[in-house]
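With this grant's support, the team has encoded backbone shapes as discrete tokens. A representative record is reproduced below.
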Amino acid sequence: MLVDTGLPTEADDFLARLWSVVEPQDLACVFLTHEDHDHAGNLLAVLDAAPQARLVTNYVTVGKLLEATTLPLDRVVVVNPGERVPGIERELWVLRPPAYDSPGTVGLHDERTGAVFTVDAFGTYLPEVADRLEDVPEDDAVAGLVDFNRANHPWTTLAAADRFAAAVASVGRLEPRVLLSSHGLPAAGRIPALLAAMARRPTLEPYVPPDQGRFEELRPEMGG
């Protein structure tokens, strides 16, 4: 099973690495968390190369994908939070992350390993490259989580604090041994601090993006 399909700008490298660890004919399932380009960028290339693989995702994501492309709908299986991923021997349960930037977003809980994949939630900006979140000072990890989620999930400032905290607590009740995010390092030793920081998200000031003047300053770093 493959979770998400990478950026289209990195297609050659992504596909080469993917097929180096699994033969296309052995890929049974592509679990797509949502339709954003950094998650679904190489979806059609993967499905074309692995014609027996099913696409497992949420119905809302299917609808959004169909706005821009054609899907082999006879190979699509739609799932909702609380359901088990079908056709996979491991008990992988679908969940709704506490924060998300697309309405069809679905994550995963692997009961065997204790891994909880929260997609964009718990993404973290970091001041330096590291292999594990435990290698980063806790204050930096927490600050990076707050900054990422302020920018990527601006709607959380409108959420009722108690209801949002309850959504975060539902992740804690899974007793994750590792938190996985599409935009952060694997986190095993900092889980309580990350949960606490995420729960406070609705009480923080909203993110204000750069204005034109700041954008002009940033352009060289962005390649323009």
Observations:
- The chain has a mean pLDDT of 95.
- The helical segments are 11-21, 37-40, 43-49, 59-65, 138-152, 161-172, 191-199, 212-218.
- The first helix runs from residue 11 to 21.
